[in-house]
């Protein structure tokens, strides 16, 4: 198998990013207006401690996965936390290490600035992803509530 390359998103990745993020949103049965795509893409390249960032995974010369992550303050630590907001691998490459490589890239990047808490959530029915998550992280037992 060819090695998976994970790197920060570049402006030249726009078409691949849009394709992958659309597939991610479709997986979660969600559609967002074009304005949200545009502002998200802009934010991914805006300097700032709390602006979102992203990585793209490439396998055999093709973009096959992406992740978005962001830092935020915590009342439990003097360091920020890192929220891994979106994680997606093309269905045809699932099980080949793309998701794990993206998670590891975020972990390594967060570690460079002293962040020790990288966390995320997934839907309870996402059994494929949960197998990976159970392998690379610990399940905290917390339940999410939402006011929307």
UniProtKB/TrEMBL annotation:
Coiled coil feature spans: none
Molecular function terms, GO-annotated: N-acetyltransferase activity
The keyword Endoplasmic reticulum appears for this protein: no
CDD domains membership: NAT_SF
Annotated keywords: Acyltransferase, Transferase
InterPro entries: Acyl_CoA_acyltransferase, Diverse_Substrate_AcTransf, GNAT_dom
Domain N-acetyltransferase: 4-148
One family name in Pfam for this protein: Acetyltransf_1
Name of the protein: GNAT family N-acetyltransferase
